[in-house]
Specification:
about 130 residues, alpha+beta, four-stranded antiparallel β-sheet, two-stranded antiparallel sheet, 6 strands, about 20% helix
């Protein structure tokens, strides 16, 4: 998340996967695995951001029974120009909420992050800014 013109904006990326019904869906700015925060196109997001809220969520069962995922909404202080990242876009929370409501447009991970952004915990974190 960044603050732009006194409004919160969220950067979402386009992901192409054969398993998606529409072949493309919007997802989170950054996926990380195995406790490694990867650089996002040569920009170190971890160095220029602060966690606003985070949750840890476990999977229900099956082959992922012992796995868990951490979801973070970070306030990014030093944002590179959006033109540098043609694979996505920055949108406001209300637009993001509308996008998630449309089937086949967003990944499950982005849906989880949007529900976190619409939560009381997020509101509380933003008041502390």
């Amino acid at each position: 998340m960044r603050i732009f013109n006194d409004r919160a904006q969220f950067f979402v990326r386009v992901y192409n996967e054969l398993s998606f019904a529409t072949r493309r869906e919007f997802g989170p700015s950054l996926y990380c695995g195995f406790n490694v925060l990867a650089e996002f196109y040569g920009w170190d997001a971890a160095a220029s951001s602060t966690d606003l809220v985070l949750i840890k969520q476990s999977d229900e069962g099956g082959r992922f029974m012992h796995s868990s995922a951490s979801y973070h909404i970070k306030l990014v202080l030093d944002v590179p120009p959006c033109s540098q990242y043609p694979c996505g876009m920055s949108i406001g929370l209300s637009q993001l909420e509308q996008l998630v409501a449309r089937a086949g447009k967003t990944t499950n991970e982005l849906g989880t992050l949007v529900s976190l952004a619409l939560s009381w915990a997020f509101d509380t974190a933003c008041f502390r800014l």
